[in-house]
Amino acid sequence: MKIEINRSSHVPLAQQIYQSFTDRILSGYFPSGTRLPSVRQLAKTLQVSPVTVMQALDLLEKQQLIERIQGKGIFVAVKNNVETEEPEEEREDGSLFLQIPDYLHRTQQMYYNQVLAQINFSSPIVHPDLLPTEILAQSISQLVQKEPEILAQYGEIQGDIELRQALAHYLMNEGIKVSPQDILVTNGSQQGIDLVARCFLGPGDIVFTEEPTYTAAIDIFRSRGATVIAVPVDQEGMRIDKLTALLDTYTPKLIYTMPTFQNPTGYVMNQKRRRELIDLTRHINCLILEDDPWSEIFFDQSPPLHLKAMDRYGNVIYLKGLSKILSPGCRIGFMVASDMILNRLIAAKTNADMGNPLLNQKVILPIFQSQWIRRLLKELRESLKQKRNLTLQLLKEYAPPGMSWLTPKGGFNIWITLPKGANTIELLSMCKQKNISFLPGSACFPSDIEWNHLRLSFSNVDEEEITLGIKEMCMVIGKYLSSLDRQKGQTPLF
């Protein structure tokens, strides 16, 4: 396991160590009863003082995540308060876990956050009632009856040509002029990020990302050995002035950005910054990966042009996921890139899976060949705007003092901030007792982690669940913040 410590962070080292172990214990990476390294081993491996390690362990013990057994060592607490059994021989050397690279703790945390939550504010997907499931079911039935051989066929590695033609026409209406030969069909947007990382990143390469950003992207880039450098964002998107300043120290090989309704914040990069970003990368020989999860879901006015629509130099890779607006079960998306870049991505796709299932591609084809996609998106915008408005109304009515947020102009999420000192992972444990889940914002920070944010996704819940969930969540937050206030004036943790 690799524990990352940011020594320049304002977050105390003991708190960082505590949080790293908490993530791994709650995700199940460290099972109940696992023996952990000794204080001396941890201090040596992490290059911190034994006092710092002791402070972190005290916090873990306070949260009942570990147990210290006299003469035996430190163990992950057994669930349900069952008496700890004698640790097995193979678990004796807990330092082994510190030697195994681990790049997926954010993904593990996201999985854990969704377990057993009836009111799911953690998943930014469309509620099943709003998806075109009947149309897709009819399409599957007709396809199998008419062309049963489709079940026994591989598709083209680059993607079905008819679908790529339909997507090229769709993109024309989005301001992106491409041919079917410029498109690669993928198994969702996450595979697209992985293909870019496989092709263009290696150990020591620099990637600039927004901070906060999409959690899986952080794990994917680091799994390739790349160094992720965070660029702050504000309500106008990625701070180009901060990015420019970072160029004095770093030479990025890739800039990963979600300029439209950014995940998790919902911010939109303005037109001026988009142009500045493209012009800037021309001079540093750097690729831009533009991730577009839901630019069509705008609630007032259309967002600015895509970066790819403004790309004059051929260094922008456009990535679009379709699963969130059509069917999460389809797992389909696509990428647009210039010739040489696309050829390398196709080669990586060949190694990954030899192409998407042909059935999935043919099933969604009629939606893009007709005007039905426009009607679907219009209905989605109207329905999700109602959900957003209801969520904001309830937050305004029930949120306790100190809780703040901005109104998203599109997308599926609301980014909520609590006072400094709050930890939304602790809050999540309390909310789960009310069967409510959300994504703690700490998972979205690649470096200087901030613990007092959460991402609330309103897209996957109905209005009754929104009403009950927001009321209950705000009540829990109010109690949590009150408990923090009572702790003020007491001996600080660090």
Automatic annotation (TrEMBL):
Q: Which cofactor does it need?
A: pyridoxal 5'-phosphate
Q: Which UniProt keywords apply?
A: Aminotransferase, DNA-binding, Pyridoxal phosphate, Transcription, Transcription regulation, Transferase
InterPro entries found in the cross-reference section: Aminotransferase_I/II_large, HTH_trans_reg/aminotransferase, PyrdxlP-dep_Trfase, PyrdxlP-dep_Trfase_major, PyrdxlP-dep_Trfase_small, Tscrpt_reg_HTH_GntR, WH-like_DNA-bd_sf, WH_DNA-bd_sf
Record's protein name: PLP-dependent aminotransferase family protein
Q: What GO molecular function annotations does the UniProt record carry, in alphabetical order? A: DNA binding; DNA-binding transcription factor activity; pyridoxal phosphate binding; transaminase activity
The major lineage groups are: Bacteria, Bacillati, Bacillota, Bacilli, Bacillales
Family statement drawn from the similarity comment of this UniProt entry? Belongs to the class-I pyridoxal-phosphate-dependent aminotransferase family. In the C-terminal section; belongs to the class-I pyridoxal-phosphate-dependent aminotransferase family.
One of the Pfam families matching this protein, by short name = Aminotran_1_2
Quaternary structure, per UniProt, is: Homodimer.
Q: Which organism is it from?
A: Thermoflavimicrobium daqui
Classification via PANTHER family: HTH-TYPE TRANSCRIPTIONAL REGULATORY PROTEIN GABR, TRANSCRIPTIONAL REGULATORY PROTEIN
Q: Which residues form the HTH gntR-type domain?
A: 11-79
Q: Which domain of life is it from?
A: Bacteria
